[in-house]
Predict the 3D structure of the following.
Amino acid sequence: MQLKRAERQYRLTTGDYAKLAGFRHALRGFLHFSEEAAAAAGLTAQHYHAMLVLRGWPEGAHATIADLAQQLLIKHNSAVGLVDRLAQESLVVRVVSSTDRRKVELRLTARGRQVLATLAAMHRTELQRIGPMMRRFFAEISRLAAKDPVGPRVRPDDEGSQVPRRLRRGARTAGETTPTGAASRPAARRR
């Protein structure tokens, strides 16, 4: 019964769930395509994404490892390892900044640009293929939002997440149940 109450509160229908599932399926299908295309070129999807970030950086400016980490939503040390692997494959080079000798800028090599252009062209073609379905999905979402503009909204919490804390992996408070149904215990106090 609690589930139906939640669905009423957020005005969710079976059709809403089906649309969201379809959208996630389309996204996952595109990501799967991307992973397969990158693998065929001897790269991971993350390598491809990193190269896209570097090539898409504004003209005349150069990304740093910190910039890359921020764009990929990974830790700095993970970005260092990623750049190391790209450099080993002669896809990226590190260049000491001409304006600040303490900084290292990242640049695609000629080989990196060639590999990236090939992959990007394949991705553009795939996006053109799935684009009409995505446009229909977003048009439907816009239509529904216009019809019910004041429905309950999920607001970001203190940490900037729109996912309720109770649904986040590993984030349980005292008294909440685990997936197995066991109640969690409050952390022991230090004396």
